[in-house]
């Protein structure tokens, strides 16, 4: 007879049929399904960068306006992280993930139907709202599914996201040479509907408990009993700077490439190269964080990011394309290490809330900083110096990381 058991904290451990434990296949299916969903949503996020030069010509936008267009998507994504987490306690994580993916796809379909900047902005905000469901819920699903062994799977999850960043923008760049940008967005929306159906079909029901029970943390749960709010706050600060540097640079990458003679197809390929490196960075640095420690890995990745950005600014087109995979590796290497540390520093073991807070502040900071700081900077001094400012932002992580290091050493 098939039975399902649960741990005291509400985590389903999977079904057994008398022939053995089936938790491993269940975990694999969960990770694979969530990984594909992550690839779609991260692909949606970076698809915007490839379209910025198109929208600049189509609507006559400056850098401030382009930064604002992108930030509407990211702002909605960041601002609705915690409401999405709360909604999952009522509807269940799977239902919210499916609805969010459908909303993200619907936003892109509406963007393709828009005839002006206002409609485009509304559509991108809706798509960002749909994507807000993905990060906190999916990360918490993995953290609870794998328990104390979650750091590696979280790295795999983030690796999957960068596969989407590599594939979707590169494919869109190639399609834009033959198709109207509106049709490209409709094709992206159709892909989202397919992925939503897959999540509804394959993701196990209720992989995240509807209510958290911080007063009775399970011993195997990462973050159980942690009360180091200062350490978690410093981790959020590091994440905010890291997430500000990445879009601040990527906002100007298409225009830097065009200055070097790149066409739209080359721009799409360039983002694909950076994303391939980013995927490797998230996979590699997630494992390196386990072996060599969080502090060393974050300092290496942020310093490497700053140097690689400066190389992209200074080099001609061909060497720049060669540097982009290395830049992507460094640019995204930090995030896997940070995501894997969130459950360990989650105050009072509230993993879902910790992920929601982390993503809200880090992505929200990016959404605010890009139009208010880096957009005006680009209009004032041009893409090259704005990219240099992004490099300085990445390097600013290093001293904060040194302050955070003792808190990591003391974690329970």
Helicity range: over 70%
Tally of discrete structural domains? 1
CA-based shape: globular
What is the terminal separation in angstroms? 40 Å
Largest sheet: 2 strands, antiparallel
Sum up the structure in keywords.
412 residues; mainly alpha; Growth Hormone, Chain: A; two-stranded antiparallel sheet; disordered N terminus
Give a concise summary.
By secondary structure, the chain is an all-alpha fold.
Write the layout of secondary structure elements.
Elements: E1 3-6, E2 12-16, H1 23-59, H2 63-79, H3 81-91, H4 93-113, H5 117-131, H6 134-146, H7 151-175, H8 181-202, H9 229-250, H10 253-259, H11 264-292, H12 294-314, H13 317-345, H14 351-381, H15 383-395, H16 397-409
Antiparallel strand pairs: 1-2
Word description of this protein:
It is built from 16 helices and two strands. The chain has 412 residues and is mainly alpha-helical. The chain has one domain: Growth Hormone, Chain: A, CATH 1.20.1250. Strands 1-2 form a two-stranded antiparallel sheet. A hairpin with a 5-residue loop joins strand 1 and strand 2. Helix 1 runs antiparallel to helix 8 and helix 13 runs antiparallel to helix 14.
């Amino acid at each position: 007879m098939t039975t399902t058991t649960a741990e005291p904290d509400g985590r389903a451990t999977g079904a057994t049929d008398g022939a053995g434990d089936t938790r491993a296949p269940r975990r694999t299916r969960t990770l694979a399904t969530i990984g594909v969903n992550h690839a779609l949503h991260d692909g949606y996020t970076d698809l915007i960068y490839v379209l910025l030069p198109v929208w600049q010509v189509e609507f006559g936008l400056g850098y401030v306006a382009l930064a604002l267009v992108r930030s509407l998507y990211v702002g909605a994504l960041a601002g609705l992280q915690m409401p999405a987490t709360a909604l999952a306690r009522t509807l269940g994580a799977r239902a919210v993930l499916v609805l969010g993916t459908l909303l993200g796809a619907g936003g892109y379909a509406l963007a393709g139907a828009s005839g002006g900047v206002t409609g485009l902005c509304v559509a991108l905000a809706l798509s960002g709202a749909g994507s807000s469901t993905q990060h906190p819920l999916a990360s918490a699903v993995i953290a609870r599914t794998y328990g104390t062994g979650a750091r590696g799977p979280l790295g795999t999850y983030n690796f999957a996201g960068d596969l989407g960043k590599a594939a979707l923008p590169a494919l869109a760049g190639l399609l834009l040479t033959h198709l109207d940008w509106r049709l490209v967005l409709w094709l992206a929306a159709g892909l989202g509907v397919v992925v939503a159906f897959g999540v509804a079909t394959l993701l196990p029901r209720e992989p995240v408990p509807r209510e958290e029970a911080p007063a009775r943390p399970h011993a195997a749960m990462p973050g159980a009993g942690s009360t180091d709010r200062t350490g978690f706050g410093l981790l959020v600060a590091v994440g905010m700077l890291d997430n500000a540097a990445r879009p601040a640079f990527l906002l100007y990458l298409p225009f830097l490439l065009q200055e070097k003679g790149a066409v739209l197809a080359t721009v799409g390929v360039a983002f694909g190269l950076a994303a391939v490196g980013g995927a490797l960075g998230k996979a590699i640095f997630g494992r390196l964080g386990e072996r060599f420690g969080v502090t060393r890995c974050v300092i290496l990745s942020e310093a490497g990011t700053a140097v690689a950005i400066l190389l992209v600014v200074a080099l001609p087109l061909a060497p720049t394309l060669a540097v982009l995979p290395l830049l992507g590796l460094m640019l995204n290497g930090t995030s896997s290490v940070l995501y894997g540390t969130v459950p360990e520093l989650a105050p009072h073991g509230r993993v879902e809330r910790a992920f929601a807070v982390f993503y809200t502040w880090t992505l929200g900071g990016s959404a605010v900083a890009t139009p208010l700081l880096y957009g005006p900077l680009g209009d004032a001094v041009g893409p090259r110096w704005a990219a240099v400012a992004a490099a300085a932002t990445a390097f600013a992580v290093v001293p904060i990381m040194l302050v955070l290091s003792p808190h990591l050493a003391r974690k329970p």
